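Human:
Take a look at this sequence-structure pair and walk me through the tokens.
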Amino acid sequence: MKSYKFIIPVLALGAFVASCDTDIETIHEQGDYVVDPTQVSELYYQNLREYKATDHEIAFGWFSKYGGASSMALRFAGLPDSIDLVSLWGGIPTDPIDMAEMRMCQQKKGIKFMPVSICRINKIDNQTPFKQHWLEILAQNEAGTLTGDAFEEAKHEVMREFGLHNVDEVFLNDLDGYDIDFEPEGDPVRGELFYTMLDEMAKYLGPNPNITKEERYALIEERYGTAVAQKPGSCDKFLCIDAYGQDPGAAHCAPLINYFLSQSYHGMISRNGYPQEKVVHCVSIGEGWNVDPATGSTPQVGDFNTKTGLMYDYARWKPAGGKKGGFGGFIMNDDYNVCNLNPYPYARFRDCIQICNPAIY
């Protein structure tokens, strides 16, 4: 980490200019709609990317509400430079401004972006090919023409199609991984069916110990072509699971995922089945996360080392092994807003990044 001593002190603040939420920030266009902070050198970006590549506790967030030219609170260019991983809760960008800024964040800042969806086949549009296949086999089962082992295998085949549909969203949109939101609530995609879908995705994504990089490269090349397979990082894209109280099963899932994004919104949820270096505890920003559960107060003024609140607790917490996956927040852009507890955009997020990964002066 000492090689980053000239840059990491800057990371806590990122590169922004703002005095209140209604001010126009000092920005300039670099072509193709990209809006980038002023007075930022290429060396800054290089060091930032090198920092992201180190083994450290990550900062993660679900990001939403983006959609063209609007407040920097709803812009990819407004994200903290030092955030590591972002789940696209607002969907894969379609607006050219959003897309260009997301690409800038990927390429210059080393931020990784993942599509996300709640993993329920009953919520999938009926026109989606694998959902049509699902409805067909259910109809055949009801008619008595597909039963027993054949029906079970047909369900698993649809799960493999579901998994490939998710993987396609990553590779066809040049994204950095996938966030599976495991909240079945009675949906069939749980247990062995979920594992079949996950196993198919893990052929292309995540740290799967059961496949070599050469085997993965061949699969990617076969499905997406040589140009995609040869892109830097094509064989190293992330696979993550997020969940609230329920758990899809650590014994099967833990080896296949980079991070378990725990929706520990109102208090830390034990995830003992997962290596702690893979667990990222996340608050729900705007829902009382900034209240100290012990006292009910919000002492968030002053030095970040003395501030309290659930996100600060997660940033400071160290497991017995000494390292956790990191911390995060749901709808992180709600922390952009400036108020008496948040003197500049994403101040609390930046505080917690500093707590997890202290600057070297």
